[in-house]
Amino acid sequence: MTAGTKYVVGITDHMIGAPDLEAEVLGPDVEIDFFATTDEAKFDPDRLSRLDALMVWGARLGQQSIAHLTRCKGVVRYGVGYEKIDLAALGNAGIPFANNPDYGTEEVADHTLAMILSLHRRLWEHDARARGYTSGWQVHSLKPLSRSNKATVGVVGVGRIGTAVVNRLKPFGFHILGYDPGQPPGHEKAIGYERTDRLEELLARSDVVTLHCPANAGTRGILGADGLARLKPGAIIVNTARGELIEDLDALEAALQSGHLAAAAIDTLVNEPPGDHPLLAAWRNREDWLAGRLVITPHNAFYSDHAAIEMRRNAAKTVRILLDEGSLRNQVTDRS
């Protein structure tokens, strides 16, 4: 870098105000160009062509923008997922890409455990139904309801977050199954779960199934109509990973309506905010048949005040290392 000149780092959008924390981490020799929009169509080609690096929050990044990143040394996503990033186009342009995997592990694992315990104990259903009790009180127990040490939790994806979930489940006495072809033999012994080599086995044996895998060609729709049908009758499902893993709301509604699926907790949906669908209408209207059986949180399992700071600092540090050393940590290649 020539004396007196600055690097230019673009930030597409931000959910937590101005990028002041990023500016602090990146340093005085970096000019931040804040696009302040999730709409890729509004990215100015001239501004894109000035960038030495680009940080992406919630915006899509496709060929139309990547074609103008002629000076860009790398693209860094604030979050873990990268479904909105055209990795093939970046690869063709010779621009490396990195995500930000080392934040929010505790928060997502805690959120997941809260969902599992609350649905397993049927807390939300108790709360919904207790409002209408006019006689008796303790007699209104919901059945079936098993002890935690008599129940099995299946963890699909035993990586960073899945492992944190396993570690949180163990003190409650749950039997834990894990399915993750990407983990080496013996991983289950080191962490402490029973490994299954077939997803179908995990679905058939689990009282609760919790998803912690990426959305790719092999996992999209993993709990669609076929996957839901393979579940143990009366099972519970939890998804704090990717909306595309349970993208068929018709199948989810049918499984809940029939009772084959006891309950579901979802933090991430394909369309956010969610649009119109009979299942979502029943959830919004608190229809009696669904009372306490479908829990939806607004894609904030990752969030705590601490995680938000950690996420921003880590992403900015990745860019700073790229500018200083020319290397991109947490680099991701096209795995679609």
Task: Give a topology summary.
Layout: E1 7-11, H1 20-26, E2 30-34, H2 45-49, E3 53-56, H3 63-66, E4 75-77, H4 87-93, E5 97-98, H5 105-120, H6 123-130, E6 152-156, H7 160-169, E7 175-179, H8 187-191, E8 194-195, H9 199-205, E9 208-211, H10 225-229, E10 235-239, H11 249-258, E11 261-266, H12 278-284, E12 294-296, H13 305-325, E13 331-332
Parallel strand pairs: 1-2, 1-3, 3-4, 4-5, 6-7, 6-9, 7-8, 9-10, 10-11, 11-12
Antiparallel strand pairs: 5-13
How would you describe what is shown here?
Belongs to the D-isomer specific 2-hydroxyacid dehydrogenase family. InterPro entries: CtBP, CTBP_dehydrogenase, D-isomer_2_OHA_DH_cat_dom, D-isomer_DH_CS, D-isomer_DH_CS1, D-isomer_DH_NAD-bd, NAD(P)-bd_dom_sf. Pfam families: 2-Hacid_dh, 2-Hacid_dh_C. This protein is α/β, with parallel strands linked by helices. It folds into 2 domains: 7-103 and 305-332, NAD(P)-binding Rossmann-like Domain (Rossmann fold); 105-296, NAD(P)-binding Rossmann-like Domain (Rossmann fold, 3-Layer(aba) Sandwich), CATH 3.40.50.720. The chain has 13 helices and 13 strands. The strands form 2 sheets. Strands 8-7-6-9-10-11-12 form a 7-stranded parallel beta sheet, sandwiched between helices. A 6-stranded mixed beta sheet has the order 2-1-3-4-5-13. Helix 7 (160-169) links the parallel strand 6 and strand 7. The longest helix is centred in the last third of the chain and has 21 residues, at 305-325. The chain is elongated, with a radius of gyration of 22 Å.
